[in-house]
Amino acid sequence: MRKLTCIGLASLGLLTAACATAPDPAALQFAGDSPAPVASADPRVKFKDGERYLRDLSANLNMPREDICKELSRYDCMTDAFRIVLGGVEAPNLLVNEPIENAALTSPIAVDRVALHVCSKRVRMDKESPADAVLFKAGAYGEDGRSTTPDKAWLSGAADAIYGSILLRSPSEREIQNLAAFYPQVADGREAGSTEVAADWVTLSCFAVASSLEAVFY
Amino acid sequence: MTTHLSRRNFLRTASLGATGAFIAARMPQDAFAQEAMIERAKNPRFLIVLSSFGGASQVDAFLSRRESEVPNAATLNAYPDDMVQTIGEFRAIDMKGPSIGAIPAAFTANQSNFVRKNSNDMMVVTHTGTSVNHFVAQQRSINGNAAWQGRTLQEAVALTYGAGYAIPNVHLVNGTGFTERGTDNTLPAYVYGERAPTPNLWPLSLDGYRGIAGAPDRKLFEAARNFRNERLDPSSDFFRTFRNSQRIKHWADIRGDALRGVEAEDLITKLMLFPDSEEMPLAAHGLTGSAIGQKVREAFPNYEFDPLEAQAALAFMLLRYGVSVTVTLGPEGSAVFKKGVKLGEGGLGEGDIVNPPISFDFSHQANRQVQAVMWNRQLSIAERLISLLKSEEFRDGQSFWDRSMIYFATEFGRTRRRPDNAMTFGSGHDLNNGSLIVSPLANGGRVLGGVDVDNMLTYGFDPTTGRPEPGRNMTEPEMYSGIAHALGIDTAGSNLPDMRAMRRLA
């Protein structure tokens, strides 16, 4: 089935990189690159605290804020579970009046959990209600509706949906290539054209983008 | 080669519980420094800061005085003779009362049981602080008024012993000066305190994957993490523009080896205090409670509604599982009532109030009653922690307690004056006080310093011999130094005074 994936990706010009056992990151990373931006001499980025982060994901992924992320199916990820480590405050009971100055050791783990919760749920909703799908549009992998494995258009469309929904911008050609190159890893040892593989790829791509530096900081 | 072998042995030291993923990143470059770090991590000391918010007063406890001993007893805070017990060098007050100031709740409080049981490990040291502001004084109680470049005692312990521990310094109580980050910014990131504000749900933040319904296979999840870290982020315009940000660098650092080190220890299971229940449906999410959960819950049966008991339970688990070398816990500002108590429906029963509002600081309303209730609460927590730590072997027949210290950090004492012969009276903040330290590492069984019965203020002691020195006041840096040295921390180059009298061994 890995062969099928390679066929699909061939149309994207990624055959060598995507199907190699160990793809050369540089070949993918800088293909179609625009000139590298100049590094800021005085970078002032801020951590997007958990509530802002979840509200953004809620609005962008069309998921109600109150249901978007529940630990143990009952505790809100931000309000109840990770409020402090995600940069929130809780003065009345915990006396925490100021957000943490530096990210805690557990902060990136909490972010990963939240992103995985949200993306898993979004894709599950997409599978349950294809007509309202936001990220994972199953049923056909190509514009002609006949492909049995993700083709260039489907992968590009999915990447566009993921970046557009989470970061509110279109992905660059390089970013599309990067996500497409990740597909074979997800499909490794599985039926590449199966709905489950494609859904996993969308879930994990969503996770990677939603927990990326660009999503967590601003 | 020697260094390499030592490191391997270090990683094999089961009691450390470390997997090594994060240790390599914490290793200093210098081979000699590596050896020193390894040796210290293999032979740790544990610091438990049991913060005592609001002014835990020594003259209402282990330095109390009888009215017959005090010339102006009617107007000073001396207790009726029959209330003061003498146990070794210590005093103890046991008290019952119908109310805690304006709070109509009967109480029974006991100090003598703890003293009788633990006097060999108890050390009371007198000192005089420099601030009666709560937050400032709290900070100074743990940084010795910036005695060592502003690093806190917890940070010093984490730096000395914590390299092999996943989360060396955990703050279970928050929003106080006792858990304020020190001002020494030269320390490695792992020594600064990690906030664990909700003992029931915090363990979930120790694994990015487990317990999430419908997530793809873990191997794929890890592949996605690597893809993000190694390809997606490095090639993004955002990263390339802001890559010099300290926040970005710190984030990239802690989501690498540090994160893998934490997750590899399965702390989401080991530290899960709560059992599977309707409130905590662990099994339904593929999770289980800690193997020692039952034992810990039996020691702290009120963990579900009493934040301090939940903190203490998690504190023990953090030490027992080799996750941390220092934990900070303590009562918070809110009142805590026994489970099921309904307010506004008549008076409270005995013991219905577990923690008065603002803890020791409610002494503004009723000094003696509040001190009695709060000391009883703190000593009860300490007693149960000690019992648990004694019940677990660290190595070679030594228990965890043999390597531990409980420091009852507090801001200040309370004013000593009272209306004529009053039993119930309010008190203010007073710089003069003392601290209780309980540890096999401390100069146990000793009161260092004394009480001037003319004014009920404490006086100091000779730092070397411990001999009482009326007229001398011990300082915050001296207290900091004495605690650090008792814990075996190398303070070379710090200019801290030698406080030989405060440690058991030379």
Write a short abstract of this structure:
The complex is a heterodimer of chains A (218) and B (506). Chain A has 218 residues and is mainly α. Helix content of chain A is 51%, strand content 2%.
Structural class of chain B: alpha/beta
Gap between N and C termini of chain A, in Å?
Answer: 40 Å
Structure annotation, total helices of chain A: 11
Biggest sheet strand line-up of chain A: 1-2
List the domain count of chain A as a whole number: 1
Reading off the top of the CATH hierarchy, the class of the largest domain in chain B is best stated as Alpha Beta
Q: What fold name goes in the CATH topology slot of the largest domain in chain B?
A: Alkaline Phosphatase, subunit A
Into which percentage range does the β-strand content of chain A fall?
under 5%
Question: Termini distance of chain B?
Answer: 34 Å
- Overall shape of chain B: globular
Low-confidence stretches of chain B: 1-6, 11-18
Note the main sheet of chain A: 2 strands, antiparallel
Portion in helices of chain A: 40-55%
Count of domains of chain B: 2
Unreliable residue runs of chain A = 1-32
Radius of gyration of chain A: 19 Å
- What is the overall number of helices of chain B? 14
Mean pLDDT of chain A: 83
Topology of chain A as a string of helices (H) and strands (E) = HHHHEEHHHHHHH
